[in-house]
Amino acid sequence: MAIWEIVASRRPQVIKRLVRWPGNLAIVILDTLAVRLFFPLAAVGAAIYAFEHGWGLLNLVSMPAWGAVILAIIALDLAIYFQHRIFHAVPWLWRLHRMHHADLEFDVTTGLRFHPLEIVLSMAIKMAVVVLIGAPALAVVAFEVLLNATSLFNHGNVRLPQKVDRWLRLFLVTPDMHRVHHSAIQRETDSNFGFSVPWWDRLFGTYRAQPEKGHLGMTIGIEDFRTEHDLRLAQMLVQPFRHTARRPAHTGQHHDTGTV
Questions:
Q1: What residue stretch is flagged as signal peptide (predicted)?
Q2: pTM (2 decimals)?
């Protein structure tokens, strides 16, 4: 994705990679260490444990193994969609999640930029969902690969032909679709929550086709954190505890704007 961004970038980047990437990549190391510390076996371990004890919906019904894998992947993706919406709606959860949105550029490393506390909490939620639905271990592994691969793809600062983007976003979240979610305009930030597939946004009324100011004219990030100083690792880590203007409440459903 990084090579693709160099060869065919969608937006020119004002803030250079040497300024942003050290913090974004360092946070990945801390996230990995945090998950390994708190959840040594993580979601796959939870799936194996649930299977051995017969816990979860899919462990209580008889169906082909391939059917259970497909249903589990769909259920996990839907759970991540609603988790993402909740992290935007609940103030203290937004404080954790906003570090992801505070990146002042949008590229492949933005897809890796999550606060360690959010990563730990997200893993706890994911493990609970895995046990609740009785997801097979194979489904969990496949979903983790899918989630991480699509996150890197849809955060890419890459250019796709409009026809290809229109076709792809029928079954996959494209970079242009997800970039809207990183707009500094709140009604656009509170749209396009899906990471893997676009169906949940379309089904639940949170789909927005295009940014109001266009992909080249839109502002990426959050109004409260707009300096290069905010991109440093130390500032990223303390960001959830920094006071900012209160996020205004948003009411009503999101409506599709622009063309696909």
A1: none
A2: 0.91
